From TrEMBL:
InterPro entries: ADH-like_N (IPR013154), ADH_Zn_typ-1 (IPR014182), ER (IPR020843), GroES-like_sf (IPR011032), NAD(P)-bd_dom_sf (IPR036291), Quin_OxRdtase/zeta-crystal_CS (IPR002364), YIM1/Zinc_Alcohol_DH_Fams (IPR050700). Belongs to the zinc-containing alcohol dehydrogenase family. Quinone oxidoreductase subfamily. Keywords: Metal-binding, Oxidoreductase, Zinc. This is Zinc-type alcohol dehydrogenase-like protein.
């Protein structure tokens, strides 16, 4: 079958950065679904893994962590799906990616594709939806099942216009949470307001200064989706005592964790690949989560966050999508494939 992989780490503008390759057709076993991929999305994790030096000695690296498609075959332990089912999912970081004609994925992290979305639009939703949902309702102290518990609670989302931010704003508002989002360009400010943000501040300025224009000076929780290290002091400045911070962005060295001690702040990570990577006992929660998101999408409670579509799925369009994501100017999601 045809797939699209990286043979050597190079700039995305180099045609060799992502190339078509031929690999054997995979065979599903146990809980695996064999999916004929109709569309994929490109996320920041795709570019990070593509640029990693390790692992290339074993052949081509095939990335891709969002997909929609049709189930072609199933493993012997599969109970949730059958051939012919239309599905969407985000895959597992330790397995070959979705940038291929056929892809293996564990059924426990897959859900039926939203009925009212085409394959292209559906492919842009899984990874960001899982990340946002887990961050809000499993890492941060908000409830999806009991929104009355969220009444009066305030959340700050750093980088509201990105892929995760675009769905996090909507999920938070659905759950009755007051949302302040950050954005710095006229088009991103307009986008986060369209998604439902109650206020918008500029993340290029000191947060405590931006909050002077707001009717409150602190928030109960922060979801950091960009530059954790760079916003460390900003977050401490506006988080309430005994508040919660969750980030999806690596810190690196040089962070003073003691800064959070006087306020007894809880800090946590969200990494949506944790469940499939370690095959946790609650791995099937991602299946259930994506089912809930599909209902919200089909009922119009939340809207798709796809802003750009490229067709067909080929190396050239994948390189274009990676370049756009690496630019840091992406609004919402970009998808590649067919309807």
């Amino acid at each position: 079958m045809k797939a699209y992989g990286t043979l050597d780490v190079t700039k995305i503008t180099d045609p060799k950065s992502i190339v078509p390759i031929e690999i054997p057709n995979p065979t599903p076993t146990e809980h695996d679904l064999l999916v004929r991929v109709k569309a994929v999305s490109v996320n920041p994790v795709d570019t990070k893994v593509r640029n990693a030096r390790d692992g290339l000695t074993n052949g081509a690296r095939i990335v891709g962590y969002d997909a929609s498609g049709i189930v072609e075959a199933v493993g012997e332990k599969v109970t949730l799906f059958k051939p012919g089912d239309a599905v969407y999912y985000a895959g597992a970081i330790q397995r070959k990616g979705t940038n291929a004609e056929l892809h293996l994925v564990d059924e426990r992290i897959v859900a039926a594709k939203p009925k009212h979305l085409d394959f292209l639009t559906a492919a842009g939703m899984p990874l960001t939806s899982i990340t946002a949902y887990e961050a809000l309702f499993e890492r941060l102290p908000f409830s999806a099942e009991h929104p009355e518990q969220n009444k009066g609670k305030r959340l700050l989302i750093i980088n509201g216009a990105g892929g995760v931010g675009s769905i996090a704003i909507q999920l938070a508002k659905w759950a009755g949470i007051h949302v302040t989002a950050t954005a710095s360009r006229p088009e991103t400010v307009a986008w986060v307001k369209e998604l439902g943000a109650d206020e918008v501040i500029n993340h290029r300025h000191a947060f405590k200064d931006e909050f002077e224009a707001l009717p409150f000076d602190s928030v109960d929780a922060i979801l950091c989706l960009n530059n954790t290290k760079g916003h460390w002091q900003n977050m401490e400045d506006v988080i309430k005592p005994q508040g919660h911070i969750c980030s999806i962005v690596e810190i690196g060295a040089g962070i003073n964790l003691d800064l959070l001690k006087p306020k007894s702040i809880t800090f946590s990570w969200e990494f949506m690949f944790t469940r499939p990577k370690f095959e946790t006992d609650d791995m099937i929660e991602q299946h259930k989560l994506l089912e809930k998101v599909a209902v919200l999408l089909d009922n119009g409670v939340i809207k798709p966050t796809v802003k750009k579509k490229l067709t067909p799925l080929n190396a050239e369009n994948l390189r274009q999508a990676h370049e756009l994501v690496e630019s840091g100017k992406m609004i919402g999601k970009i998808v590649i494939g067919e309807n």
